[in-house]
Amino acid sequence: MDRLILKKEQAEELIRKYGSPLYVYEEEVLRERCREVRTLLALKTYHPQYSAKANSNIELLKIIREEGLDVDAMSPGEVVQERAAGFEADQIMYCSGNMSEAEMRYAHDHAGILILDSLSQADRYGTLFLGSEMGIRVNPGIGAGHDAKVITGGKTKFGVLSEDLKEISEILQKHSLKLIALHEHVGSLFLDDTVFLEAAEILLKLAQQFPDVRILDFGGGLGVPYNGEERLDLNRLGRRLTDLIASSEQKSGRTYEIRIEPGRYIVAESSMLLGTVTDIKESAGVKYLGTDIGFNVLLRPVLYHAHHRIHGYSDSEEQETYTVCGNLCESGDILAEGEQLPCMRIGDLIGIENAGAYGFSMSSDYNGRLRPAEVLLSDGTDRLIRKRESMEDLVNQI
Ligand SMILES: Cc1ncc(COP(=O)(O)O)c(C=O)c1O
Ligand SMILES: N[C@@H](CCCC[NH3+])C(=O)O
Fold first, then answer.
1. 250, 267, 284 — which closes off a domain?
2. How many domains does the chain have?
3. For the whole prediction, is pTM greater than 0.95?
4. Would 5 be classed as within a structural domain?
5. Pairing of strands 70-73, 92-95
6. Residue 34 is among the residues annotated as catalytic for this protein
7. Ligand 2 residue neighbourhood (C-beta within 6 Å)
8. Looking at residue 131, what DSSP letter applies?
9. In terms of domains, do 86 and 187 share one?
10. Mutate to test the pocket of ligand 2, among 95, 147, 189 (most ligand atoms within 8 A of CB)
């Protein structure tokens, strides 16, 4: 199964049972994506990890762990979720930015290797943990991604540019730190691997300047098609990356533990988000399909103008063009404009494809709208993997 597509009867049954809106995940798709990433490189030293920022539901994390992937973490909160899913500290690579001293201490005590995002962080880390091993996030100067907001290489707040990395030697010496890992991440969602591979080459070259480096992490960003684009060619990516690594290792006589950290690729396609049509109206020539999916439930369309395919679960044979919107107090609360759907009635359901990555994980209770529930489908059975937020949750402030 390429991605989860629910049939009308299935969607209606799930909404009857669990309420609306609802994130629904399919275990088979999730496991399949994990296996693809697990076998991307045929190197003994290959060590893929899942980037839990895409979705940190603990039941999904357990499946990902069973499939043999490690994880990265971006905050103490993610470490707690990952530990709850059974990951050991040394299976968690901690990679964040703008860390406070307290956060560094937390990561040092509860996670595996820590990737520092600036020279100043490396200096403070050295003061706290003299003689430790650590990694640095390199900004390769080039980036890729589906929107400027998620391109992280180049002129962005992330990492240390190669030319500035020279200064690290003094910091390493001052605190007897051992730089064992170089990390990079060009950005999120590429379907063409050119920039990712160019950046990998940059990191492989850079590593030669640092004799203690034994881990190279090329980051995530592996994309999935949202609107019928051609799939990322994983076999080609695997082959080309393997060639780059082999040629660098041959030249330098050094071997590295190789890591990547995809998030979206693993979870996006395993999920559909279901919602309900709550109103329909025409205003100034526009037909608005009002739903209970505000941007507190799915933020990506509003934040990045991202388009997710929408299914209208209707019995009508007729088509209509809608602006599909949510129930929040902002004019920008729009899921899609000019969307061709079968004629919908109030109470009909809609289903949004590829909702598994950066869907629930970016949700909120803005306007007092509750975060949705999450359900997992496994071998034809369904089970709740996160209960819907409640009114009690909204008022329990202290
Ligand atoms: C440092 C880092 N690693 C990994 C990821 C995962 O990216 P993606 O979900 O596109 O694979 C991100 C998010 O863009 C990130 O910031
Ligand atoms: N949240 C982004 C991608 C990840 C950004 C994290 N570096 C999206 O939905 O596309």
1. 267
2. 2
3. yes
4. no
5. parallel
6. no
7. 53, 150, 152, 188-189, 300, 304, 358
8. T
9. yes
10. 189
